[in-house]
Amino acid sequence: MKLWLVSSLETDSPLTSLFESNYRGLLEVEIMSNERTGRLSGSCRPTIFFAGVLAMAASTAVAAEPTWAEKMFDSTSHDFGVIAVTAKVTHRFQVKNLYRETVHIASVKTSCGCSVAQPSKSTLASGEVIAIDVTMDMRRTRMSTTRKSAVLTVVFDRPTIAEVKIPVSARVRKDLVMTPGSVDFTGVEEGKAASRTLKLRYAGRGDWTIKQVEVNSPHLTARVEETRRVESSRLGIFTKFHEVHYDLVIDLKPSTPAGLLRETIVLISDDKKTPRIPVLVEATVDSDFTISPMAGGVVSLGSLVPGRAKRVSVVIKGREDFLISKIEAGTSSGVFRTKLSGATRRVHVLPLTVTAPEGLAEIRETFTLTIEGRDKPLIFTVYGRVVPAAKP
Predict the structure, then answer these.
(1) Containing H/E element for 315?
(2) Per residue in 154-176, is it b (16+ CB within 10 Å) or e — as a string?
(3) Which of 258, 275, 305, 380: CA 20 to 30 A from 297?
(4) Count: domains in the chain
(5) Residues spanned by the domain of 131
């Protein structure tokens, strides 16, 4: 007697099933009867071994395949590298909703008190992109720590329950102290320059030097100034070392746009093994105008159905009464319609009607508002994903 065992896992959609891949394992087992004992005994043909190997390989593939939630992240791990003992560093993970259904983040947490995580938004419309910032603060760890790691856990409850775990880590160098642990520009008014100074203290080689400063942001400039180089000791001649002091001066340009700025400046030393020293720079530039609802500089239109008009209200708020004299779109496709009130007030509600044409997968448009008496115009971008109409 032969018994065929067939195992199958199938899924129709990554958002409606807990399984992401298909596999089939096929085992052929021959069952023989022992007439004397009345017992059954089994023997497996050589094909069973190969089928078992294929089944295990398929199982491994299933485990390695990213889940529907993991596929939305631009990366699922991050190494901050080597940082100073008192440093504060941040990394931004991008999350994009790749699906037609709305995705909702139920919670975001980290496994260590030295780290915090904050999403820019908890609900993602189809095609929408948000950020999750993870900050690791070495000042909240033990001074004896040489390596620090944490796990970021993001829990989703829509359209189905899913959990994404992202490991983050950093190596700590004890010979370098930064005061403060990061550069903070808080509450800077738009159009005004600002400057901050961070003090750096190194203990070790007498000829230790910072050779270069890397700045990738067009809104920042930075320079280092050596302030002190002396020989020191703690317990006599057996523990002599040299101290080298630098001032890191960071300038925020007046052309920096309103909003949150988060950048990393890198100091390059003459160390052979760990020459790069990251320095976190955060700035909050306050505008005299705010536009909402906005996340990541974009006003979401949500899901759009071809040929069906949808209205979105964009709210523009100023510190004082103002007049919107003109609105201009980046293209002349005729997809959008709006009307200006012609009134002078502190809060304006701009009715924006969009009708998606056939043949487009998404709509992205940039609008420019001219404010009476203001040299610099207000600019905002809208985005929506086009989906087919639901079948009756």
Answers:
(1) strand 309-322
(2) bbbeebbebebebebebebbebb
(3) 305
(4) 4
(5) 71-172
| Residue at which a domain ends, from 110, 144, 172 | 172
pTM here? Answer: 0.60
Q: Tell me the C-alpha distance between 68 and 15, whole Å.
A: 7
- Tokens encoding 180: 């403060």
**Residue 392 CA: distances (Å) to CA of 214, 361, 389:** 58, 22, 9
Residue 392 lies in a domain: no
Q: Are residues 331 and 381 in the same domain?
A: yes
Last residue of a domain, one of 143, 172, 201: 172
Query: What is the side-by-side order of every strand in the sheet holding 183-189?
Result: 183-189, 276-286, 259-269, 210-214
Residue written as token pair 């738009």: 190
**C-alpha triplet 249, 252, 253: angle, nearest 5°:** 130
For residue 251, tell me if it sits in a domain.
yes
pLDDT tens for the chain, residues 1 to 392: 443 333 333 333 454 444 343 333 333 333 333 433 444 344 444 444 444 444 454 444 445 688 999 999 999 999 998 888 888 899 999 999 999 999 999 999 999 888 899 998 898 988 999 999 999 888 776 656 678 889 999 999 999 999 999 999 998 888 999 999 999 999 898 889 999 999 999 999 999 999 999 999 999 999 999 999 998 766 555 567 889 999 999 999 999 988 889 899 999 999 998 899 999 999 999 888 888 887 767 888 888 999 999 999 999 999 889 999 999 988 756 789 898 989 999 999 999 999 998 888 888 899 999 999 888 898 889 988 898 887 76
Residue 301 in domain: yes
- 136 and 78 inside one domain: yes
